[in-house]
Design a protein that fits this description.
single chain, mainly alpha, 73% helix
């Protein structure tokens, strides 16, 4: 039970807490003269923390807004406020969700799979050099020490490996879009000249 509660608390800190300022501003603007935004926020946190699971929540920010709206409506009902403003569907459209759209997330995952597949075709040293320098962000000296090679070897593997991956990606993209071989070579040259590693 404590592990579940700790997981939900961590989730709240990670997914809900960053939106508190925006929700507080929204509450103050919408119902500032009727309800205390601090009370609404605290009650919303309590309601979310009392959930047994957060797996059903797809958009934490939207869930937080909706919970705050429900709490504000409950407070107004209890206090006898009859005429309160409800949020229309058009107003909900102004609530921004920072999560990428499903098609963009899928396209990014597919692109990552493409790049990982191309990286796996490189030599072990070349792949490791790219991973250490570009993904983990370690210095050239540290990458050389980890792989037991000179800094020049790291630099050469990095340049050649990235160029090879970018050329294959350009060729695949050109093939998919029906570009001629000349265009593929032009894209590859542009990658060579514009990419400063």
């Amino acid at each position: 039970m404590d592990d579940e509660h700790d997981a939900i608390s961590a989730w709240i800190g990670r997914e809900i807490l960053p939106h508190e300022r925006a929700v507080r501003t929204w509450l103050s603007r919408r119902w500032g003269h009727v309800v205390d935004a601090n009370d609404v926020i605290q009650e919303a946190y309590c309601r979310i923390a009392s959930l047994t699971s957060v797996d059903h929540i797809r958009s934490p920010m939207a869930y937080f807004y909706r919970t705050a709206q429900t709490v504000a409506a409950d407070i107004m009902r209890r206090s006898g406020v009859i005429n309160f403003t409800s949020v229309t569907e058009n107003e909900w459209l102004n609530v921004m969700d920072n999560e990428p759209l499903a098609d963009r997330a899928m396209a990014a995952a597919q692109e990552l799979d493409r790049v990982n597949g191309l990286l796996s075709e490189l030599s072990e040293t070349c792949r490791k050099a790219i991973e250490l320098r570009r993904i983990e962000g370690v210095s050239q000296r540290e990458a050389a020490q980890r792989l037991g090679v000179s800094e020049d070897v790291i630099r050469n593997h990095l340049v050649r490996g990235v160029q090879r991956v970018l050329k294959v990606l350009a060729a695949q993209d050109a093939h998919l879009s029906g570009d001629a071989q000349e265009t593929i070579e032009q894209k590859a040259e542009a990658i060579d000249t514009s990419r400063s590693l």
